[in-house]
Design brief:
It is a single chain. This protein has 1 helix and 16 strands. By secondary structure, the protein is mainly β. It folds into 2 domains: about 110 residues, Jelly Rolls; about 90 residues, Jelly Rolls. The strands form 4 sheets. A 5-stranded antiparallel β-sheet has the order 2-3-9-4-7, with no helix packed on it. The protein has a 5-stranded antiparallel β-sheet with strand order 10-11-16-13-14, with no helix packed on it. A 3-stranded mixed β-sheet has the order 1-15-12, with no helix packed on it. A hairpin with a 6-residue loop joins β5 and β6. It is globular, with a radius of gyration of 17 Å.
Length: about 210
């Protein structure tokens, strides 16, 4: 997906379905964020580790995982849903044991300190097109949106004011579900030319 002035992007989308797992990989690494695809593997002993940066976590498949901690917290078991988005703070040593099957997480590690100011603007997607864009969460480092476009639907013209990672949850002509694109500010509209719904998660990085 390329950014230009006032384009209408055509998405040939497939319905949100089971996304095949893929190996762990670093997808992007710049001065604002490091974007990784993590493969969590079933039946492999969990190792204690810690994360140094706050992260946006997008789960590509449903899964169950049990976490143990070294700071006195009791173990916890979580059931994650495909397409779920969570905010994960840098924290103490922990180990996650996969309880059912392999799964992928797109992890966006944020390097910028951010700002307490909310992302907004005259053509902000949430203002001009709330029927297609919904807010997952916003904090000083990032704003996360979910974009859903119905079959043959089209968004209104809108503008992004920050760099962002776009995580595709459905196939398009240019991207497979599970792909991530790094995009820069621009004004645009999107059109889904498919007879299937389109869905993506957008993480806007605050500087």
């Amino acid at each position: 997906m390329k950014i230009a002035l006032y384009p209408a992007f055509l998405f040939l989308a497939a319905a949100l379905a089971s996304i095949p797992t893929a190996p762990s990989a670093v997808l992007f690494d710049n001065n604002e964020a490091k974007v990784l695809r993590a493969l969590e593997v079933y039946n492999v002993p969990a190792k204690f580790h810690r994360h140094e940066m706050n992260r946006v976590m997008i789960y590509l498949q449903s899964a169950r995982q049990r976490f143990s901690y070294q700071d006195g917290r009791q173990p916890e078991t979580f059931d994650f849903k495909a397409g779920e988005v969570l905010w994960s703070l840098a924290d103490g040593m922990h180990a996650g044991q996969v309880l059912d099957h392999d799964f992928n997480i797109i992890e966006i590690e944020l390097k910028t300190p951010g700002t307490n100011q909310a992302i907004t603007g005259k053509l902000d997607p949430l203002k001009v097109d709330p029927s297609h864009y919904t807010l997952e969460f916003e904090n000083p480092q990032v704003r996360v949106l979910r974009l859903r476009i119905e079959p043959h639907g089209k968004t209104k013209q809108h503008a992004y004011s920050t760099d962002r990672a776009v995580v595709f949850l459905t196939d398009t002509a240019q991207h497979k579900a599970g792909d991530v694109a790094w995009e820069t500010p621009g004004t645009q509209a999107e059109q889904n030319a498919s007879d299937k719904p389109f869905e993506a998660v957008i993480a806007e990085v605050k500087k």
